[in-house]
Amino acid sequence: MKKVIAALTLLLLISVIPAYAGDQYDFKSAEFKEVASQFMCMCGCGQDHFECNMQGCGLNDSFKQEMKEMMDDGLTKDEIKDYYIGMYGEEILTAPEKKGFSLTAWILPFAVLGVAGVGIVFVIRKWVAGYKEEPILFEELTEEQELEDEIVKSMIDEERKKYF
Amino acid sequence: MHLIGNLSIYLALALSIYAFIIFILGIYKQDQRLVDSGKAASLIVFIMASISMLILFTALGTSQLQFEYVSAYTSTDLPILYKLAALWAGNAGSLLLWTFFLTMYTAMVVYSRKMKNNPLTPYVAAIMLANTIFFYLILGFVAKPFVLLDQVPVEGRGLNPMLQDPGMLLHPVTLYLGYVGLAVPFAFAIAALIVKNIDAFWLRMTRRWTIIAWMFLTLGNVIGGYWAYTELGWGGYWAWDPVENASFMPWLTVTAYLHSVMIQERKGMLKIWNISLIILSYALTLFGTFLVRSGVLTSVHAFGDSNLGAYFLIFMALAVIFSLYILMSRYHLLKKDSGQFESFFSKESSFLVNNLILVGATFAVFWGTIFPLVSEAVRGTKVTVGIPFFNTVMSPILLALIFVMAVCPLIAWQRSTAKNLRDNFLIPAILSLVVVGLLAGLGMRAAYPIISFGIISFMLLTHILEFYRGVKARRKVTKEAYPVALYWLMIKNRRRYGGYIVHFGIALMAIGIVGSNFDTETMKTVPKGGTIEIQDYVLTYEYLAQRSEGINDIVFANIRVTKNGKELGYVQPERIFYGSWEEPSTEVAVLGSLREDLYVVLSAWEKDERATFVVKVNPLVKWVWIGSFVLVIGSVFAIWTGKYGNTTPRYTGPQRKVS
């Protein structure tokens, strides 16, 4: 009898646990945001499922509810993601995946920047190498002197305009 | 009225074709009379465009519902301002606005005093008219603004509620002024190539035009962002939507161009690069228009059900092929002055790095924008490229750009020595590290914002130091008081210091952009008298009420706001139900300060007056708007003529028979 009571108690406990888990997440919790913001709402609002607040967007409410239920059932962020990708394809995601062909979306901008950067270094090196130093007739001006020089010249120019 | 409207379109089309041909003939025959006739025709085309605009404005303002356009985008109850602003709500009207600006710019260039005796004039005019012809062909045969309906409807379909916002009055107009404004430097660049006049003269001629176009592009983007922030209710201002990207890309390339032209002016280098940049910028404006009108990409901005995209794609292809052909045919001339750099560490090099980052950023945005199409073409699977992608990819690029902006002003032309670098950057670098330490001390733990604020403060400090050095140098010579020296320093070097003011604006915007990423949000359903707490704010929902404005019903909630126990006043988020539109719209309530915005959205309500609110605290958002004001001030300062301004040069080169 004791065993039966123990088994029943265990069963009762097991059945109660999901009920507690069901209250774990609300629609504004950080965990829910993490999950919901990876999916694009398809109501045309241009927002993800966390942000969509379009009036009358039936899609978002049911999506949110479904996601919350999955989270309450203990599914991880990635498992939920895989579930929806399996159902709707990669289009449901707010950003391309970082694998397969989609990886090129992430890499190419930096690759292009890197290659162009190397190109610029080569070009500048070529231009610097081609630089022929002219004999110094006057003492080189420091940057501060250059600025003073500019100011003096502009004042002289102004005076010149005034009197001539 | 519709007859005059149509006549103004077809007559303008005929006259633009005439002007285009007569300019070409005038150039070919070197006959000034023909060129003058072309000039007069360009002016009449502008007058015709003004008449078309006036007629459409009148039809919209007086609710002439027999016009298809009027009935499609307005209703009789619409406030007069929005009735008029509906001119750019649809395809035909917005393209008419575009054409109007194009003809206006053409007339301004052709009749500019600065263009007197300038042999580029007929070429520039002909290139701009080629654009005008394209737009008039569209207006005349594809997207006609003056089509009459068979039956006059009792009421119009009304204006989309999202467009019933002050942003609608400004955002499209400023954006188009920017977009179309880029046609001017483009036309000058191509004209300079055709006449083989490839020195920096055309750059100087178009400097002001380019800055004006850039300024309007900036304004257009910022006003659009403000509109999204206050109207859409999602608490953000930039969603990296394909159409937003379309206006951001030319902004980036023109920014690059405005910097790299300085090397051409100073050293006669980068001629091919500068012309390529302006061609690219112009092509990107057409690409943007193609995106908006074609619907090939999902966008909240798109003008649906339109086949106009194909026309724009063809026109863009023709413009690019023609430009590249001209560029290639002059390649040998442009290549002549390949130039030299004295040192790796020079302002010239930093400008090149600045260009690399700006064009790299353009590529990143372009790649992200078209990737869904690429993916579909390659794998048959369409993917979405949204905010997380762009934020991840663009953040480091834009931070690098701010760093280069910090370094650029203080690095010397020709050659910077180690001593120069130490003298110029040591103090700003130490002070920026202090800022970083302070932020960490205040509890900021995330690495990205700390690095970002560190770089932004470094940029601000190098710029302040640059102002200080200039004032000090001036005082040494003139013995003026500090404010007087600062005043004259800036007034007499408008271009340089205008540019630095623009940099200040960008830094302030960057502060806002970084800060606003750290928003806090809550959504709560509360009964009457209930409270919502978020950070230090307590919002007490007092009541829900309804009022009417015309045929629209407005439901609003009255909310009392306190912060740390101190009364801040009331906010009233609204939902507007339109008499002539199914979807209600959100009117966000924002209680703002320089530190943060309290952003309240009325999401839903029940019969028992329980209401659901989305409440956000968005830090530092105001700095985005303040920064944009500073940026505009800097742009205007840089191009202001005045006594000491950088005036546009007059043509003093060899005289030709026609100009």
Automatic annotation (TrEMBL), chain A:
Residues 1-21 form the signal peptide. The chain crosses the membrane at residues 103-124. InterPro entries: CcmH/CycL/Ccl2/NrfF_N, CcmH/CycL/NrfF/Ccl2_sf. It comes from the Bacteria. CDD domains: CcmH_N (cd16378). Residues 10-146 form the CcmH/CycL/Ccl2/NrfF N-terminal domain. GO terms for molecular function: metal ion binding. Keywords: Heme, Iron, Membrane, Metal-binding, Signal, Transmembrane, Transmembrane helix. Possible subunit of a heme lyase. Belongs to the CcmH/CycL/Ccl2/NrfF family. This is Cytochrome c-type biogenesis protein.
TrEMBL record, chain B:
Residues 88-294 form the Cytochrome c assembly protein domain. Residues 313-639 form the Cytochrome c-type biogenesis protein CcmF C-terminal domain. One of its GO terms (molecular function) is lyase activity. Keywords: Cell inner membrane, Cell membrane, Cytochrome c-type biogenesis, Lyase, Membrane, Transmembrane, Transmembrane helix. It is found in: Cell inner membrane. Its main location: membrane. The chain crosses the membrane at residues 6-28, 40-60, 80-111, 123-143, 176-195, 207-228, 248-263, 275-296, 308-328, 349-373, 393-413, 425-444, 450-468, 497-518, 623-641. InterPro entries: CcmF_C, Cyt_c_assembly, Cyt_c_biogenesis, Cyt_c_biogenesis_CcmF. It is a multi-pass membrane protein. GO terms for cellular component: plasma membrane. GO terms for biological process: cytochrome complex assembly. Belongs to the CcmF/CycK/Ccl1/NrfE/CcsA family. PANTHER family: CYTOCHROME C ASSEMBLY PROTEIN-RELATED (PTHR43653), CYTOCHROME C-TYPE BIOGENESIS PROTEIN CCMF (PTHR43653:SF1). Required for the biogenesis of c-type cytochromes. Possible subunit of a heme lyase. This is Cytochrome C biogenesis protein.
